[in-house]
Amino acid sequence: MTAFMDYPEPSNGLLKYFKKDDFETDRIKVAEGTFGQIYQVKVKLWREKCALKVLDTSACPHMYKRVMKAASNIAKVKFKYIVCIYGLCNEALAIVMEYMNNGSLNNLLFNVNLMWPKKFQMIHEASMGMNFLHSLRPPILHLNLKTTNILLDDHLHVKISDFGLIHWEEETDRKVLEHLIARGNISYIPPENLGQSCSPPGPSYDAYSFGIVIWEILTQRKPYAGCSMTTVLLQVSHRKRPSVEIIPEPKPPECDQMVGVMQQCWSQEPQARPQFSDTVRKTEALSEIMKLPGPRQNSVVKGHEGEPQCPALPIYDISLPLPDLLPDEQSGKEAVLSLLFKKDFSSFRSSVKREHVYTQFKGSKSLLHYTVASGDKTSVEHVLRLGADVNCTMAKGYTPLIVAALNRLHDIMSLLLDHGADPAQGDEDQWTAIHFAAQNGDDRAVRLLLNKGMLADAREKSGWMPLHLACQNGHETVVRLLLTRMSIKTIEEKEEAQGRTALHLAAIYGHINITKLLLSQGAQLNATDASLSTPLHLSANAGCNRIVRQLVMGGAEVDPLDRKGSTPLHMAALKGHTGICRQLLAQGADPDAKTNQGWTPMHLAAIKRHETTVVELNNQGASVNAPGDKGWTPLHLACHQSEDQLVAKLLAAQADPNVREDGDRWTPLHMACASLSFPSVLHLISHHAEVNAVSARKATPLHVAAQHGAVAIVKALLLNGADATLRDASGFAAVDVAHNHGKYEVVQQLETFAEEN
Fold first, then answer.
1. Residue 110: its pLDDT value, please?
2. Closest to 436 (Cα-Cα) out of 412, 406, 410
3. CB-based contacts of 369: which residues, under 8 Å, 6+ apart?
4. Which of 99, 367, 529, 609 is the most exposed place for a label (fewest CB within 10 A)?
5. pLDDT 10s digits, 142-157
6. Which CATH number fits domain 105-289: 1.10.3720.10, 1.20.1250.20, 3.40.250.10, 1.10.510.10?
7. pLDDT recorded at residue 73
8. Is residue 492 pLDDT above 60, yes or no?
9. Does domain 322-489 have CATH number 1.10.60.10?
10. Cα–Cα distance between 65 and 77 in angstroms, integer?
11. Pick the residue with more confidence: 592 or 490?
12. Contact between residue 572 and residue 538 where contact means Cβ atoms under 8 Å apart
């Protein structure tokens, strides 16, 4: 507990003010954005990872003041597709935000080969976030929307970040624009704002940026790549936009409609661009048509601490750069590739020579790689007859067989295998063709490879087997096929990074049919990973109700401890999964089990403000007065966080309003005064809280309220018997504390009260 004389500054609404000491000393730099550096930090009290965005105010000296205002407003509202802002840190000129485990969309687009349903889902979710910002009164304009400011949660759902940091004002508009351009944002700035003088931007500015974002998601490329700033300016001013011709094939019919949305967004005239309220309806309809699969079904990214790790799905780039294939500039080898690109396979076969077969193209690709990617089996057979090495590799180690597997070219896969392709040959990360096929849910390719002698338990360099990939991504047919070639001992083997079995992965991602299938094959219910988490821990944490029910009904232990001493009930309470808490308690879970730090499930629910979960735990017999770390009770936590409704519920459940924590011996009333929660103070007083309780330093709640200038709270305390003459350990009365901290309105109030009494 911090001494009352050093307590953090008061909060505004839900916004918190943090000190550097509120974070653990270890912090990790994870990114550098347009307006500052982002660090991963852990809040000591919450035991939760957060993002600390340290602002660079050089572009705009008044930025922090603006950020404080914007953060104060946005902290009062929450939305599924908006990154949550927890507060500010004055000492570091930083924003404390929700930490997104999978980083930015920008990184994902260039490390993972996304399938169409996932692309459409991400576009729709981004439009949802932007529509929310624009629908506020007054609306919040982003003005820096780009893929680096679209972040990804554990299940690859997007959230908009860094909104409201830019404000166009007379003295700073050009400086801000110049700063954005200098940081590489020119591709996202609409033409009307690129001139020497421009009007303050409106919603159409964000609509233009969103059009560029859609293009990036559809193509997984950077706009205007390799072009100078001058070239971009000229192209944009002459109504030229990134080419839609390079959107990869094959593409679904709905893609043309999404391109239409994109082109409307980046219209040259601002008035022609749609409102996000219109855009979000269109993207929603297109996403629903695509019938999106479950979370993570289409892509895998490298995990982060506490999350399952899986190697990034490599990107294979076999596209032909159009500028290099213009007729007047073609060399012999480029002319051959041009025929493949045009799908003129007959001319290709008549033109290709043995010398072309042994030519190494960009990225160490061979002619066979390009021919396989073209999808024409006859041409592949022709190149093989000319002596092509069937197991040749490109720069990242991809073989022609891997390229065929990635493109689901089953006939060509069979042809390559018949010509001696090694199914066990992997890329630089030891991913083999069967890993890619399992990842993509391609059961036909998996069956073909198994029938050609490929082992079902092949491991890539991090220890992942095809079974792990299929279980994580929900490909039940592939799982069934692999299980026919595996022993129970092999099924129980773990990937090396996090030590998780196939059952762990199916459980955490909510794949109920795969979970049942693995259990029917003898998978261990209580297997532990590297953090000693069981499948029940992971499914409870992820909110997978059906998985939890299946595991507990199957006989899983309900109170296993992970390395932090957490049970599945702790996990569910921390995330506010009330239904799962109810299930676990019904099966005998200990409602008052403590973690290694001494927190009960009710403490964790209180820390995260899950009121419904707190009530459910109390109804199931959990103690509302259990002391946790430093002797804090759930009521201490609720008061500290200004959660007056939760305070009321805890008091109604017989929480002790006069219990003291271990450090400075503060009562909940001290904390409510320090957090400036007037409703909480009233709730506590009405439940007989001692208004003159003294801390270890002899500070009363009145001293704390006086320090922070809480006029209304001071008045409430005085009217309910607070003794203004009591002195703290330094010999100060409340009026002295108020005077020392410059809270002169409180000084006047206390002096007036003394005169009247």
1. 78
2. 406
3. 318, 392, 394, 398, 400, 403
4. 609
5. 888 999 889 988 778 8
6. 1.10.510.10
7. 59
8. yes
9. no
10. 20
11. 592
12. no
Residues 96 and 186: beta-carbon distance below 8 Å = no
What ranges do the domains of the chain cover?
Answer: 4-98, 105-289, 322-489
Q: Strand, helix or coil at 750? A: helix
Where are the alpha helices (H) located in 398-475, listed in sequence order?
A: 400-406, 410-418, 433-439, 443-451, 466-473
- pLDDT confidence of 342, banded at 50, 70, 90? confident
Is the link from the previous residue into 250 a cis peptide, with omega within 30 of 0? Answer: yes
Q: What SS3 class is residue 314?
A: coil
The CATH fold assigned to 4-98 is Phosphorylase Kinase; domain 1 (3.30.200)
For residues 415 and 381, the answer to whether their CB atoms sit within 8 Å is: yes
Collect all residues with Cβ–Cβ distance below 8 Å to 163 and sequence separation of at least 6: 70, 74, 82, 133, 140, 141, 142, 144, 145, 149
- Per-residue confidence (pLDDT) for residue 35, from 0 to 100: 60
Residue 97 · residue 51 · CB < 8 Å? yes
The DSSP bridge pattern shows strands 48-55 and 94-98 to be antiparallel
pTM of structure: 0.62
Q: Is the model's pLDDT at 315 over the cut of 90?
A: no
Rounded mean pLDDT of 651-655? Answer: 93
For the chain, what is the mean pLDDT? 84
Q: Report the b/e string of 394-423 with b at 16+ CB within 10 A.
A: bebbbbbbbbbbbbbbbebbbbbbeeebbb
* CA dihedral sign of residues 194, 197, 202, 204: negative
**Helix and strand tally (H, E) in the chain?**
36, 8
**Packing angle of the helix pair 545-553, 512-520 (nearest 10 deg):** 20
